[in-house]
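Format notes (please read before filing issues)

Several people have asked whether sequences and structure tokens are stored in separate files. They are not. Every record keeps both together, in the order shown below: the sequence lines, then the token lines. Line labels are part of the format and must not be stripped during preprocessing.
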Amino acid sequence: MNNNEVIRSIKELKKDTKNHSIFEVEDLATLEFAMKGQLKALLFVYCEELCYSDLAKSVINYFKTNSKEVYEVSKKLYERVIDKDNAQGLIATFKAPTYHLNDYQNAKNIVILDGIETPGNVGTMIRTCDACKTDLIIITNEKARLFSPKTMLASRGMQLFVPIIESDYETTQKFLDENHFSVYLAEPIEGKDYQKYTYQGKNAIVVGSERYGIDKRYFDHPHLKVFIPMKGRMTSLNVGVAASIIIYEAFMQQNR
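Then the structure lines:
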């Protein structure tokens, strides 16, 4: 491909909401994590004119030899596909990692994101799960694209490293039942104080949509309701914040 064709292919990839197997990264900090994790890119595009920092130069040197295809483009061509206010001179595409539920039958900690709509919330929870070494994230009723630029930015690219599986409710519930997970449903009104549980054994924490909450079918199976006490006017927290608090509590309980 020539440079114009490369830019055109990246623009098409960014518009393709159905492609879950290949994604692009523009953020320098995320590419630094990818470099440290020794990941290989499918395609790497850089604009030398916009790469000022030593870190950017290190990323360029790494991906020049760890990408299937490498292209240097002009600033004018680069800015045809990038957000000009956040231009860092770099673009890389990666193949999305794949995981299988059957490999996590003995996992201790699973987080289920059910119908989360805001990319920033999805990214925040992925970042928290990385910090707490969560074994697996399951996404059901996907609304926010897992590898969209906004989700990637909020997570700082941690979906490159945290195992994540997109699934449906039936498959997920069967997996939880057959493998005897204790299921904690984040419920803002009913339930037990999140600090009163011990979170021992095999745990699955479920958080639901910002507007509609958790799929009601989860409540038809054995579960524990968990909530975060609040004394102000609001009866619930932002889902990304609430999930992070509960995930961290489970992590702390298990590591004392």
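For reference, the curators noted about this record: The two ends are 55 Å apart (CA to CA). The first strand starts at residue 22 and ends at 25.
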